[in-house]
Structure formats: structure tokens, C-alpha cells
Amino acid sequence: MYCFASASDEIPEFSSTAHWLAQFGCQSTETSMRKMKKEKRILVDCFDNHSRSRMLMSLLLMHRHGIIDDADLNEFSTGLQEWIRNSISSLDGDVPE
Asked: What is the rounded average pLDDT for all residues in the chain?
């Protein structure tokens, strides 16, 4: 469990542990584990099973999940940049004209 409260914060009395956790912005181990499992799935999707045939999809997923940003994407060819941006737009339902 981790909290965002500082050591100098007064700790008032609360009727339940859940109320105390919520008051100080703490997350339970269960919540933290759920977040870590979600992040693990994203990393596995982006980095697992590297091959040339999957690289375009890996780059698309990395950009969509924020692992690479537009500045990183600008290092690639114009054609690849357009393909990734158009693919993300179509996945989001924004079909380019």
C-alpha cells in the first residue's frame, strides 16, 4: 500500500480503514496489483513476439499507449507516421477524409 500523505499530516480517527485510506489518497495492494497487471498486459502486447511482420502493430500499440510519443514518431519515415496516425484515428472512429 502506498499513500500520498506526508509524515507531518495529522492522522485523525476514522471509523474504518477504507475511510482512512480514501482520506489520504492511499491505494490498497489490490488496486495497485490491478494497475500493475494492466500495465503488464500493455507491455506484453507492445514488446512480446518481435518479428518484422509484427513490428508495425507493435509501433502502433506503443504509440497508442504513450510509450512512444509524437516526437519519437517524427524520427520515422513520413509514410510510417501517416500509417500510424491514420490507424489510430480509424481505431478511435475518426476516419480521415
From this structure: 76
